[in-house]
Design brief:
4-stranded parallel beta sheet, alpha/beta, 4-stranded antiparallel beta sheet, globular, Isoleucyl-tRNA Synthetase, Domain 1, binds adenosine monophosphate, 494 residues, 16 helices, binds zinc ion
Length: 494
């Protein structure tokens, strides 16, 4: 089976046919860098990293664009509330661009720890103000936008007369209206679903730019339309993001692009499901957000221990990206054990020397081949990483039994052994992006880390916190997590 992708736009799994054969253009909405990314955000970015890696494994040349939202995102998705960056800048008494710099660097560090590949292009909203102004001008010229006192709004009612505004989530205008509040006398908007393309800045607003309509800043939705158009063209293959973005942000992106260029921007709309905590979506505003660093260090009252970045990544892969995934200590501990079993089997497998051309156990040989061939089939079925891992875990006891002599060494044909070795390597390392830092000289590593723990303990007893923090942070950057114990000692995990 060739690659099939579930398309939110059609609510069907469709055969993937790129616009230009051999090439894929993919745009994913990136983080709003006004605070630390939480683990839920990471789930979405890990999912698209796997998709990116798998497309490359299939031989496509992929241009993967993931933006950084560093301006224009107000607290409410419908142009209500303060600007997120200005609010945080005031709170921390720094410039908004210091907020942007701090959290962009933090985001990139976390992405690297989780072994997400950097995208091909990572454009910022502030770097593309003129493109956003141009698009806004075009929407005004096409009659889909209007100006009120220096602010430009997209006219959803006008657009809906010609196009289906709720096409992405298959909802009628009346249903979409239900979720919005009535307009009051103070409101500038003509319609409840109208949204800002450009917002007039109050004199005290910290981030503002000149425009044909006076000083202001762009709305949140227009940045993704302007940047995807600039780097991928008016029409491209895949547009992705978390499911929570479909109803407003992506719906508005489609309206902007159609209003401007008369074509739907992306052919396949992909949405990742939410990481939840006790069934509720993980989010900063609900106060149930776990930070990646809290996991890597174990410094969170609800965590029983520290978890290595690769454990966290593996935990995400065990569930299909379109299903919800609930976060818990038990699940993470299960992932830690599961990943260890997989690496052990991988190391065992790599020691097998394929010898015999013919399998002595034809039935077992056929079963193994089928399970391995299932890897690509599962990924071609809308990137089902969970199914690939289920097959891998069926193969683990077979590999271990060969090692223990319970299954004869010549049971499998040499071609099957080679296939098994090659596919395990390609999947674990290249497609799933897992790194096995636990391999190699484990005992020496243990001794070295223990030495560092002892030095850190000494430093702490002398109140030399700079040294103790340096040891902990630099080990964390290498994927080694320290968890402080009550007696001043620390345990560690990879
Ligand atoms: P933001 O920085 O809030 O714009 O979010 C960045 C990305 O993370 C978006 O694609 C969101 O849809 C996604 N996201 C936010 N919360 C979660 C969650 N709990 N689980 C999975 N993805 C999420
Ligand atoms: Zn976006």
């Amino acid at each position: 089976m060739a690659l099939h992708i579930y398309n939110t736009l059609t609510r069907e799994k469709e055969l993937f046919t790129p616009i230009t054969p051999g090439h894929v253009g993919m745009y994913v909405c990136g983080p709003t860098v006004y605070n630390d990314v939480h683990l839920g955000n990471c789930r979405t970015f890990i999912s698209f990293d796997i998709i990116y890696r798998y497309l490359m494994y299939l031989g496509y040349k992929v241009r993967y664009v993931r933006n950084i939202t560093d301006a224009g995102h107000l607290e409410g998705d419908r142009d209500e509330g303060d600007d997120k960056f200005s609010k945080m800048a005031k709170l921390q008494q720094v410039e908004p661009m210091e907020i942007v710099q701090k959290y962009t660097l933090g985001f990139r560090r976390v992405m690297q720890l989780l072994n997400n590949l950097p995208p091909s292009i990572e454009p910022t909203a502030t770097g593309h103000i003129s493109e956003q102004i141009e698009m806004t001008k075009q929407l005004l010229a096409n009659g889909y936008a209007y100006e009120v006192n220096g602010t430009i709004y997209f006219d959803v009612e006008k657009y809906s007369k010609e196009e289906n505004y709720g096409i992405l989530t298959n909802r009628k205008l009346e249903d979409l209206l239900e979720g919005t509040r009535e307009l009051g006398g103070q409101d500038e908007k003509h319609g409840r679903l109208d949204f800002a393309l450009w917002i007039k800045a109050k004199p005290e607003h910290l981030m503002q730019w000149p425009s044909p309509w006076g000083m202001g800043f762009p709305g949140w939705h227009i940045e993704c339309s302007a940047m995807s158009n600039k780097y991928l063209g008016k029409q491209f293959d895949i547009h992705g993001g978390g499911m929570d973005l479909a109803a407003t942000h992506h719906t508005n992106e489609i309206a902007q692009s159609k209003g401007c260029y008369h074509v739907s921007p992306a052919n396949y709309w992909m949405h990742t499901n939410m990481l939840t905590v006790n069934g509720a979506r993980m989010s900063k505003s609900l106060g149930n957000g776990f930070l990646p660093d809290e996991l890597f260090t174990g410094n969170h009252p609800l965590l029983e221990k520290a978890y290595a970045p690769m454990t966290v990544r593996f935990f995400m892969l065990q569930t299909h990206y379109r299903s919800t995934l609930d976060f818990s200590n038990e699940a993470l501990q299960g992932s830690e054990k599961g990943l260890r079993r997989l690496w052990e089997a991988f190391e065992t497998l790599n020691k097998f020397a394929p010898v015999n051309e013919q399998a002595s156990e034809a039935e077992l040989d056929a079963k193994v081949k089928k399970l391995v061939e299932g890897f690509d089939e599962s990924m071609n079925d809308d990137f089902n990483t969970a199914k690939v891992l289920a097959n891998m875990f069926e193969l683990v006891p077979i590999i271990n039994s060969i090692k223990d002599g319970l299954i004869a060494a010549n049971a499998l044909a040499s071609s099957t052994v080679t296939l098994l070795q090659n596919k395990f390597k390609a999947y674990l390392e290249d497609i799933f992006g897992l790194t096995n830092s636990a391999t190699g000289n484990n005992e020496v590593l243990g001794d070295v880390v223990q030495l560092l723990i002892d030095i850190r303990k000494e430093a702490k007893s002398k109140k030399d916190f700079a040294t103790s923090d340096k040891i902990r942070n630099q080990l964390a950057a290498m994927g080694i997590a320290l968890k402080d114990e009550k007696d001043g000692n620390a345990s560690w995990s990879l």
